[in-house]
């Protein structure tokens, strides 16, 4: 596995890449991609970091696993490639944005424009075997992405962390809440959303309000 990551991250993560667990992880990923169909494409594994540079980072959204269907995953959590039908969680994210900000529902589910504005769309696990959810969990990715969250917490200030669902909320312990803002709500999946744990959270307008309070430019959540 080539660690194709934007230069802005390297001073903070270079030590992580040298650790034994990461070398084992890289070997595992290389073997998986050679012998199985895996997602996202090898060149897109670090897309979240390549579109959201460290210096520009203002918001972190934490997901769990890449989509495991053909053509879906593009290296950003909750995001799909242009022309791909929107998965259920993404539909609910867009519905909440529609209500919260009065923005029309977008055609594309590609969240690159958010990443390019400083939103780190970070899955805890960055790769997956086709049609096998969770197949690359507990191989080292979580150790790496936890280190990323800790690094952001220690090296930056006034970042807004959006923790959606039980899995993401566990990452709260990695964040210094004295210098960062944390917004928590239910997961946007239909199971959680239909029980009333997602809709009405207003996380998108709240995020922009928090950014304004510290003199940062807001995120344009509109995709078209």
TrEMBL record:
Superkingdom: Bacteria
| Catalytic site positions | 65
Record has Transferase as a keyword: no
User: A single GO molecular function, which one?
Assistant: uracil DNA N-glycosylase activity
Q: Where is the Uracil-DNA glycosylase-like domain?
A: 50-211
Q: Where in the cell is it found?
A: Cytoplasm
Q: State its Enzyme Commission number(s).
A: 3.2.2.27
Tell me the keywords, alphabetical order: Cytoplasm, DNA damage, DNA repair, Glycosidase, Hydrolase
Similarity field? Belongs to the uracil-DNA glycosylase (UDG) superfamily. UNG family.
Q: What does this protein do?
A: Excises uracil residues from the DNA which can arise as a result of misincorporation of dUMP residues by DNA polymerase or due to deamination of cytosine.
Protein name per UniProt:
Uracil-DNA glycosylase
Task: Name the species this protein comes from.
Answer: Winogradskyella pulchriflava
